[in-house]
Amino acid sequence: MPRQAPHWAIRLLLDPHEDIPELVAGVDYPDRAVWDQALEMFVPSLPGWVPTWFPTELHHHRWTRQETVESLSPQQRLEWFDKALAHYAWTEWPPVGSLISKKRVIAQSLLRMWCAAESEEIPTPDKM
Question: Domain range holding 34?
Fold first, then answer.
């Protein structure tokens, strides 16, 4: 598959001109987050380079008898990922300031989102 363009936040995070700033587990992000998985598992062959751990399906009415599952196209998944980045940033989005401050916000958002994905708790796009 051909290489796709990364989401603008992923492009900033991976910018080689600045390292991702030091973040403190339990303070800047949940202590159960796995840094390498949250910040390095991007898929260049998918639109936006959405990470492998981000859901590929939407569950409607989850954990009820009315639950339905919707498989997402790569574009739908990218749109949900974009909303989730803003949702988990907990600060001004898109981030402003220096490259290093933007990387901090993006990394924190991804680390929080990874934890939510591991617990299957990322809200559906209509709930963000």
Answer: 8-127
